[in-house]
Amino acid sequence: MGRRSDNADAEARATLSDVAARAGVSPSTASIAFSGQGPVSDSTKARVRAAAEELDYTGPDPLARSLRTGRSGIVGALIPQRIGTSFRDPVIIQTLDGLAEELGQGGSGLLLLSERTRDTDRVSIEAAPVDALVLLGCGVSSTTAISVLRRRGVPVITIEGDPEAGVANIDVDNRGGTRLLAGKLRDLGHRDVALVTLPLAIADDLAPLTAAALDAATVRPAVTRTHGARDVFPDAQGIVASGSTIADGRAAGRVLLDVPPSDRPTAIIAQSDLLAAGVVFAAQDLGLSVPRDLSVVGFDGIRIDELPMPLTTVAQPAQEKGTAAGRAVVDLLDGGRPESRCFPVVFEPGATIALPAAR
Amino acid sequence: MGRRSDNADAEARATLSDVAARAGVSPSTASIAFSGQGPVSDSTKARVRAAAEELDYTGPDPLARSLRTGRSGIVGALIPQRIGTSFRDPVIIQTLDGLAEELGQGGSGLLLLSERTRDTDRVSIEAAPVDALVLLGCGVSSTTAISVLRRRGVPVITIEGDPEAGVANIDVDNRGGTRLLAGKLRDLGHRDVALVTLPLAIADDLAPLTAAALDAATVRPAVTRTHGARDVFPDAQGIVASGSTIADGRAAGRVLLDVPPSDRPTAIIAQSDLLAAGVVFAAQDLGLSVPRDLSVVGFDGIRIDELPMPLTTVAQPAQEKGTAAGRAVVDLLDGGRPESRCFPVVFEPGATIALPAAR
DNA sequence: CTGTTAGCGCTTTCAC
DNA sequence: GTGAAAGCGCTAACAG
Fold first, then answer.
1. Which of A115, A191, A263, B238 is an S-S bond match for B209, by CB 3.0 to 4.6 Å?
2. Would you call B247 an interface residue with chain A, using a CB distance cutoff of 8 Å?
């Protein structure tokens, strides 16, 4: 029973067969007239269009079309947390923008999936009607997600995901970028350097950075950036932030800085620009001047207007990441085998690092 | 031929019939075992599950299920412009967040549609496989969109749309809110008041606010807020901004303020907080002090950290708007007839208005 | 260029 | 509690 919402109005909607009948042609011909996928005489096409017009037929039912062709025209993007949270991060927005734009070129739409959906939902990763899925800097132990999708036969692309998974991965040079920043600090003479990391797992709390937590981490970039920092400062300790907002950075910064001066680091490596901005504010809260009393570096290269000085950071091509992921998806759907790639980052000198203050 | 991507791997995926056969039951029984929509003995259910496991069957194909049930489980959101642009507006993000969250409760997913899709796209409003669509503060002459969707039988909800369209509309008190702010300015003694409006149509350019432009406007809130301002200052002139960012406001503000002092308004009513912030910056650029030399009011109630003082504005419940729209959609899909509603706004005193400077 | 035939994979009466 | 039958609306071979 029951197609559509059996709302008051609607006597059954016309189907392609109805249109074909009215135009005096077979359904297959009518189908071709609509899709252009085959030869039809102009006169026939016109007749079909006219019949459609009369019957108020707007085109093939996408649901039926999807079943028949095996394609829905929809690509899913799995984002961490809820929209309001994820979308506070400019990097995610830019990446999605690039992704959506590129998918649009291929005629596909973007379905937003949050990690938080219950699997009873009609549109969870185990049941969403998607032709492919992009895992976006996710804290799903992405191997789990990937295996579910593989079983479903849904192709996957990851952005900053686990490279081992045998899936094309669009990456940025998180390790090298952080190492570069750490190197600048070392060259200036910093030795007491602390980290403010991104959450290591979905829904992490503010906490010290422990080896155990790092081992259990599911958020790739957080781990990789930590490695990059430790390439230069092997013993660097730090704080795991509870998110990637200015407020989260401020809270983490306070923990690191609101201590006796002798225990205070001379520099802080924050794993995102928003976190770094928060650290700068935390320093200001405590009467410390940046960069005189404290050097701070970030990651991402987003502009943060509220900061009194430009941040020393590395810029990543967020939108291009999305575009590349989109292109990889389109390629995949065309039967190609897109390759992983890793974007370089670009150093932005800014004005938040300096020589360590004499003690 | 060809189901799915005929990629190297995959020998044909198992179907529900395969599972049923293996479990020694009929397809209908297997279906019930999966969906829970009917009576099955526990033992049968277990057998079906086991067979599924063995065949690597993860559940019913969503495409087939959709065709059969007439529901895709997907709700579309039509946003103006591209993601990167729309999502710079915190109000849109919050609204989408509320919407997605509420839809998630109903088990539906959110498909992002941009007005900019070409109608040849597989997933345009003409052909997206959605159970319903939410028009989000759109500049589509929404009547057009609505009529397409009505013909398709896709139910629609609008957010700040045209109320006449015979569609449930989730609105906020744009007119009353702006009138309230204008009233404050009048009470302080302002008489030379200028407007910085939101774009009146998709992709508007910075331009003077003319009667013709206002008549041709497709973006509802821009029109309504203009009316609200003119309820108090009937002759107020102004500038149509080219977007709703701080930069757009700054540009518009410059046009209004970079004139001989005698031509300068003593107050500016901007139609969004971002525009208002831009106006404040434009004033500063010209050496004017806010609110001493110029009073500025906004609209929305978002926090703008980079501003040196809190903005005088009215706050709208952006997330609740989304939630309400989501609830309306769910209601609609349940066969209900959700009603339009209009949220009130709340005055936020801020510190950007004062008595007009003596001339 | 057009029509015939078949079936995508599933859910849902309805009878047992 | 289970099975048989029907068909959602469409497109893709293939034959004419």
1. B238
2. no
